Amino acid sequence: MFNPVSTYRIQFHKDFTFSQLDAIIPYLKQLGVKTLYASPIFSAVPGSNHGYDGTDPLTINPEIGTLNELRNVSRKLKEAGISWLQDIVPNHMAFHHHNEWLMDLLKNGPESKYKNYFDQSLAEGTLFHGPIMVPFLGDDLQTVIDSGELKLINKDNNYFFSYADQEWPVNNHSVKELQVEDLDVINDNKEQLLNIAAKQHYRLCSWKETDEQINYRRFFTVNSLICINIQNKEVFDHFHQFIHELVKEDIFQGIRIDHIDGLYDPDNYLKRLRELLGEQVFIVAEKILAHQEDLPAWPIQGTTGYDFLAQVNNLFTNTKAKKPFSRIYERITGNQPTIDEQIKDKKRLILTHHMNGELNNLTNLYIEQGLGKSEDKELIKHAIESFLVNFPVYRHYYNQWPLSSAEQQQLNELTNTGYDLFSNHGNLNSNDKYLQFYQRCMQFSGPLMAKGVEDTLMYTYNRFIGHNEVGDSPAFFGIDTDAYHLLMQNRRQKWPSAINATSTHDTKRGEDVRARLNVLTYLHDEWQEKVTEWQALNKDLKTKGAPDSNDEYFIYQTLIGTYPALNIDTENYEERLCAYLEKVLREAKVHSSWANPNEVYETAVKDFASKLLDNTRPFWESFTTFWKKVKDYGVVNSLAQLVLKMTCPGTPDIYQGCELWDLSMVDPDNRRPVDYELRKQYLNSEYDINTLWENRDTGQIKAWLLVKLLELRSNSPDLFTYGEYKALKVTGKHADKVMAFARVHENKWIITAVPLSLTQFSEADIESLENLDWDNTKIHLPDDAPLFMHHLLTGFKGHIRKNIKLNEVFTSLPLAVLELTQSNNQRSAGVLLHITSLPSGFGVGDFGPAARTFAMLLKKGMQRYWQILPLSPVTARDGFSPYSSSSSQAGNISLISPEDLVEDGLLTALELQFVKKRKMIGLTYHLRR
C-alpha cells in the first residue's frame, strides 16, 4: 500500500496552474512534503476557482494545463520525492452548457445514450417526473420571453436557447423546418419562442421554483450541480476511465473521494473502485463523522480528516468553561432552545423551505412503490419529514433489507411518529422497494444535515464559534486527555493512515483562528467582562438596533480570532471582514438570505464592524490589549496543534499556505493566493529559537517547526504508520495543562509532549518562554522505554531518568518531541546471576515474567549481557567450570514458568491459582503428568 507520509493541499484554478505548481516544486521539496494533494484537475466550468463543478471527467481542465504538462509536472515531483493524491468528484457534475453529456441528454431526451448518467426525470427507475427542469432563469419563462432576454441562436448548424451567459440545446424536431435567416423573425415572435421551448425534453424555469419542486438530484441545494448515477456500472466505468488510466500511468498514487455520502450505495461504490484501482492505491473519502460514530469498514485508508480536526480542537478547549460560556451567551441573547432542538429546527427549515421539492419526491416515490396509500399522503410526508429531521448522523450505509439490527433499532425509534414508514406488513416482496426508498432517503439525509447545521446553525448559534466547524459541532465543548488518548488509540488501530487535517478549502475558519479562540475558554471570566464593556462602548455604532446582540457577539469572537498581527496583513482586513459578514448573514437566514438579501441590515452590520476598527475609539485600546494576550497564548496552541497533527496516528495534511499563520475566514477567503516567495525566504533564513519566538507574529516559527516535523516523519514513516500509541501519565502542579504520548515501533520511541494552555502563566512569562516554571510537573515513562534522549526541536542529547521533568525539556519552547534510543556507548557490560535468584510467586525464580522484567531493567541500565550462572554442576569432571556447554540442570522443572504454561494452554488459570497458593513448584509438573 502506498504511504503518502505527509500531504500538501493545492487548489488549482486559472490563476494557479500546472506551471505555477512546477515553480514551487523545489520549495515543496525543501519544506519536506512527500505527497501533493490536488483539488480536482478535470475540465470544469470556465473560471471555476475550485474544480468541483466538473464538465468532463475525461479531459484535463484547459485553464490549468494540458495532459502533457500534467505528465511533466508529475515527473518533476517524483524526481523531488513527491507523490500525487488526486481529488475526484463522483457525486455530481456541473449543470452547464459545457457539460456535453448533459447537453446531449437535454437535446435528445430518452434517445440520448446518456439518459441514465444523471439522476433526473428521464432516467430509468427514477423518482422524478416531467421534462428536466433547467432552473436558471431570473423569472418565469413567459416573463423572460416577453422581456426579450431569451433568444434562439444558431452555432455550427445547431440551435440553442441563449439566456445571459447560458446556452441550452434545442432538439431537431422542434426546429426541423426552421431556417437560420428566420431567427430574427422568430425571436420577435414571443408565441413561437414559447412553442419551441414547450417542445423540448427540458423545461426552462426560474431558479425560485426549486424551493418547492425539483426533478433532478442536485448537490445540496445548488441548482448548478446535477448528480450522477454512479451506481450504474456503465456510468462508473465511463466516469473513471481517465482516472484509471492516470493511476496505471503512475501519475496518481492516491485518490480522494468528494462527498461520499451523496452516493446511492457508497459501500458498493468503494468496493468497485478498490477493485478497479488495485490494492496499492491510497484511497480516502470525505466523510463527516458524528460524535462517537465509527467509519464503516470500507476498503479505504480512512477519512479526509475532519474527525481529527474536531478531536484536536476539542482537546484544546477547556471543558470547565462550558457552563460559564453558556451563561454568557444566555445573558447576551436570552433563553434559547437546547442545541439539539435548534439542530432539528434548522434542518426542518431547510427541508420545508429549500428542499420541499425533494421531500415531495420522496413522498411520491413511497406511494408509487406501493408502500403507502395516496389518501395518506400528508401523513406519509410528515413521517418522512420527521424521519429526516431527527436522523442523528449524516446517513447510514446498509444496502440490504432487512437492515442490520443496529440500524433497524434506530429506524424504529425515528419512525415512531404515528405512521410507520418501514413496516412491510408481512409482504416480503416489498423488501426491495423499502430498500430503494431507504437508500433514496439516505441520499438526502446528508445534504440536509450539512445545510441545516454546517450552513445554517453554525452561523446562528454563537455560544462559542470555535466549535462551529465542519466535522465539529456547536454542541461540543471539549474533551479531556484520557478521552483524546482513547480516540488516538482507536485511530491507530483502525485507520492509521487517515488524513489529519486542521485547515481545508471548506473549513469555516483557519486552524490558527480556532487555536486563538480556544484560549478564551481558559479566560472566560475576563472574556465576559470584556464583552460587557464592549457592548457598552459600541452601543452608539448600531443602526436601528443592528446588529442584534447575537451577531454582535459573533463579530467580537471573529475579531479576536482573525485580526492579523502584522500591519501588512491588516491592509485589506476590513474589506475581507465585510465580505465575510455578508456571507455569514445570508447563510444564517435570520435577517437576510441569498434568495432575499436584506441590504439594509447587511449594511448596518458591515458599518458596525468597520467602525470597530477605528483606532481612535476607546474600544480599540480595550480590544487590542486583550487581543494581544489571546494572540500570544494562541501562538503556543497553534504550535502544539501542529505537533499533534504531525505525530498522532494519521497522515498529516498542510493546506496551502498554512506553513505560516492561517487566520482565514470561510471560502472564498481561505482560497486567497499564497505568497510562496515569502515562504521560500523564511525557509532559507537561519534563526535560533529565541529569535523565532521574538518574531512569532511573522509565522516563521511555525514554518520552522513544520520543517522539523516533516523531516522526522520522512525519516520514520513506519513508526508513524504502524507504531503503537502509548498514553503517558503526567503528574505535578500543571499536569492538567499538559498531554503526552509515545509512538513506538521496533525499539524506536518518539515522545510528544505539548501544553493545552499557558494561561496559568503571566503575559510577562510568555514574552520569554525560558522563564516558564513548570515546577514539579513530569512525564512518567513506561519501564521498557529507552533512556537516551534526543530533543528533536532543541537538539539537546543526554540520558534521562524514569521520569521526564518538563523544566528539562520545555526550555526555549514549551513543546517537546523526543527521540528515545538505546545508548550509543560502545562499552559492554552485564551481570552474572542465576535465574533462581529472582523473586517469584512460586518459590524461586523461573524463566517467566519476572525474568523478562529483570532483563528490561538491565536494558534500561545500559547493560548488554546477562550470563545466567551456574547452569551446570561444578565438578572435577567438568574442570570446575560453570561455563560447561552441557548442563545436567537443563531439564529442571523448577525453572519452568507456570504463568507461561497458562499462556501456552498447558495449565488453567484455576490450576495456577492453586499452585501459587500452595507455592509448590514441583506440583506444577505433576498436575500435567
Main sheet characteristics: 8 strands, parallel
Low-confidence stretches: 920-929
Arrangement of strands in the largest sheet = 16-15-14-5-2-1-18-17
Strand content: 5-15%
Number of helical regions = 34
Helix content: 40-55%
Distance between the termini: 50 Å
| Global mean pLDDT | 92
Globular, elongated, flat, extended or rod-shaped: what is the shape? globular
Class from secondary-structure proportions: alpha/beta
Q: What's the count of strands? A: 29
Radius of gyration: 33 Å
From the structure above, extract its key features.
929 residues, alpha/beta, 8-stranded parallel β-sheet, 6-stranded antiparallel β-sheet, 34 helices, 41% helix, disordered C terminus
Task: Give a description of the structure.
By secondary structure, this protein is α/β, with parallel strands linked by helices. It is 41% helix and 14% strand. The chain has 34 helices and 29 strands. It has an eight-stranded parallel β-sheet. The protein has a six-stranded antiparallel β-sheet with strand order 19-21-22-27-24-25. It has a three-stranded antiparallel β-sheet with strand order 6-13-12, with no helix packed on it. Helix 1 runs parallel beside helix 2 (67-79), helix 1 (18-31) runs parallel beside helix 25 (676-683) and helix 12 crosses helix 16 (431-454). The longest helix is centred in the C-terminal third of the chain and has 30 residues, at 618-647. The protein is globular. The two termini are 50 Å apart. The model is unreliable at 920-929 (pLDDT under 50).
